[in-house]
Structure formats: structure tokens, C-alpha cells
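Exercise: predict the fold of this chain.
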Amino acid sequence: MSTYQESKIIWMPNKDFIEKSSMFKYITWLIEFYGLDFDVSVDNPIKNVKNYEKVWKWSVENLEDFWESIWQYFGIISHSKYSKILTSKEMPGCRWFVGAKLNYAEHCFRYARWGENVITYIREDGTKRVISWNLLAKQVASLSNWLKEMGVKKGDVVAAYVSQIPEAVSALLATASIGAVWVAVGLELMPRAVIDRFNMLGPKVLFVSDGYQYNGKEIYKIGDIEQILRSVPPLKKL
């Protein structure tokens, strides 16, 4: 079997590409702030294959150091300090950054490029919609206020039975912004599977799409939605 040294190279990054890469910046940061003996070559990309293997080996043999470095490098915003990085190395069951309190929506908007587009939605029939960061933020703020008015609190479950539409992103971020739990299933699932999942979680609010397009056909889901509503007692609002 041929190795990468013997195989034909299809593409190789140039010096500028390497220096602008996230991996180069992260490894350079590790060398400076952690004093680790790593290397990254801007002139010899082939050499970086071995360099990467060395970093990877360190990351799996020093789990707590690696994850703490990720936390520090990306400047994670926490509203309370963590007391322990990792409770155990057993999966499932281990807990990460015990005591820390983060908000997913806060981090999503942290580096928003205001005035630029964030979502481009194209349906199979060619229908196109573009959502800017500004519009997304406005939708999320409005929807999070509405959820609070509906009595949704931290730890409550908000569910969605939707297609892949921009509104689903707004609903997810609005839910996360107030500390609620988001669960979503696709419209292609039949009611029984959706009902079983939602009844295990007890959502207070349900977001739905009334249908979707597939293979040139309009698939309507009103009947399925009505069946779900009848079969999930905790739901307070559609």
C-alpha cells in the first residue's frame, strides 16, 4: 500500500494559507502559553502531517490540559467558574467543566458580522431567502421574549417539528438564550416516533412547519401535527 509520501499530491497549502489557518494559530498559541514542544512548518506542508500527529497524541493523552487550552484559547464566556475540568474518563457519565454556566446563543452572536448575511436558504424549487445577522438577532430577541411570556423558564423543554428553514435557527437560538432545552425532529418522521420522543421530554411549547417539499412534491403535515398535539399532554402552546 502506498503512503502519502509516495502518492500523487492533489493539493498542497501555500505559506499564506498555513499561516491563516486555525490550526497554525492554535499550535503557535500552545507553544507560547503552554511551553509545549510542538512545531508547524509554513514551508513544508508534508512535515505538518507528523506535526499534527504529535499534537493529536498530546490531546488524547492529556485530556484535561487539552480541553482547558481550548477553553482558554477561544475565550469561552462563563457566568460562573468551573471547579473541575473532567470528573472521569468514562463515557457515558463523565462531566465537563463542572460548575461553569455558559449560553450557546451568546457565543453564536459573539462574533456576529453586523450588516453581513449569516443564512442563505435555498429550497429545491429554487426559492431563496437570505437572513442577515441583524435580522436574525431581531428575530431571536423577539422570540425569546415571547417564550418568556408563555412561561418558558430555564430547564424547560421547547420542541420543534420542522423542516430545514431559517425560522428553525431563530427558534433554537431563542430557546437557548433563556436557558431552555431545545429538541427538534424532522417533518419526515411519522407521528408515532415524534409522540414517543416528545412524551419522554415533556415540552411546553411546540414549533411546527405545516409541510415541506420533497422530490417536486408538496408534503402537508397538518393531520400529523393535530395527532401530535392530542397525544402530548404537557404542550401548552403551538
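Check your answer against the key: The beta strands are 84-86, 96-98, 117-122, 128-132, 157-162, 181-186, 205-208, 211-214, 217-220.
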